Amino acid sequence: MNELMKYPNSGKTYEKISTHDTARRGMSLEHDINITCQYYLANENADIHKKPTPITIVNVEYPSRNKAKITEAYFKVPSTTDYNGIYRGRYVDFEAKECRSKTSFPFTSIHAHQIKHLKSVSKHGAIAFIIIRMVHYDMDYLIPFSDFITFFESTKRRSLPYDWIKEKGHVIKRRIMVPCDFIKTVDEVYF
Amino acid sequence: MNELMKYPNSGKTYEKISTHDTARRGMSLEHDINITCQYYLANENADIHKKPTPITIVNVEYPSRNKAKITEAYFKVPSTTDYNGIYRGRYVDFEAKECRSKTSFPFTSIHAHQIKHLKSVSKHGAIAFIIIRMVHYDMDYLIPFSDFITFFESTKRRSLPYDWIKEKGHVIKRRIMVPCDFIKTVDEVYF
């Protein structure tokens, strides 16, 4: 049974996922990662934040002395990924994407400049990856950027096949309070 | 001779600084660091970005099919510093502030949660610092966060004295295309 859920401010409608795991039902990947990062921060495991959405501000009004109200602004195309920070002394950088297809993850889901950015930080020694949530299977995968870029640059396909994701990706588990426990997976893959 | 200059979108007015260095005249520290980061990125020296200003979006309109126009939004207090990224394999995190006083840098210039953030990333192994531009002297200083926090937590003063800044701070030089060449100073201090 699917219902539609509207998140405040996002303007997007998410499909509620039918699963017996009530904690996760209807939660977006971004929401789950934000909760996870808050947990890591509070427990001093890692210091990783979502970057604010970049916007171009055109007009600001001052209805009262202390309050600035933005009355005209536009979304900008982000030049970097959504998340970065530090874990075990290493710079960590990743993009997180939900995938609603059952068979593959389309490359159009990731902007060209985000791939360029992940390439650049990788060169500088970052732990760089992509988190893909396969919504239909209710599974989260960590894809090391090095594996992604090797496939991306050698294929004529326009998507990552789900079989490839299962083979090359590393499953991210959830636990209480930590709906997308990706640093556990980072431990296994990078340390 | 001082003139006033208004930067687009910032809503702030900057005093033009009288100096024979025309390249720098009237440029804000933020502008200079952004130019510098672009140079580092293009030359593959470092990958450091300014985080977008965090805002809370209340209303978005769609005047045409492809264009989303934000018609109501408010500035949020940032929970992290303005700049982070990677340099020589290390996570780098800093806040940049202009100081118009001739004698000291007031602690009120830095939010309490930014100090908390710099403390947290330092614990995780970051290269963390504050860049202070002493506008009157037209000098930029890199203050290692470890020195800053030691002074901050042991003093009853409400500001960093300029004498302390001169003693503990590390001068950041400018060169052509690189108006605030802070990674040179990072090299000297941290490597």
The coarse overall form of chain A would be globular
The most extensive contact between chains is: A-B, 44 and 44 residues
Helix content of chain A: 25-40%
**Structural class based on helices, strands and sheet pairing of chain A:** alpha+beta
Tally the beta strands of chain A. 12
Termini separation of chain A comes to 41 Å
- Work out the radius of gyration of chain A: 18 Å
The averaged pLDDT of chain A comes out at 88
In oligomeric terms, what are we looking at?
A: homodimer
Beta-strand content bin of chain A: 35-45%
- The order of strands across the largest sheet of chain A is 3-6-7-9-10-12
Task: Please trace the helix and strand order of chain A, writing H or E for each element.
Answer: EEHEEEEEEHEEHEHEH
Largest sheet of chain A: 6 strands, mixed
Helix segment tally of chain A: 5
Low-pLDDT stretches of chain A are 1-23
What can be said about this structure in brief?
Chain A is α+β, with helices and mostly antiparallel strands and 191 residues long. In chain A, 27% of the residues lie in helices and 35% in strands.
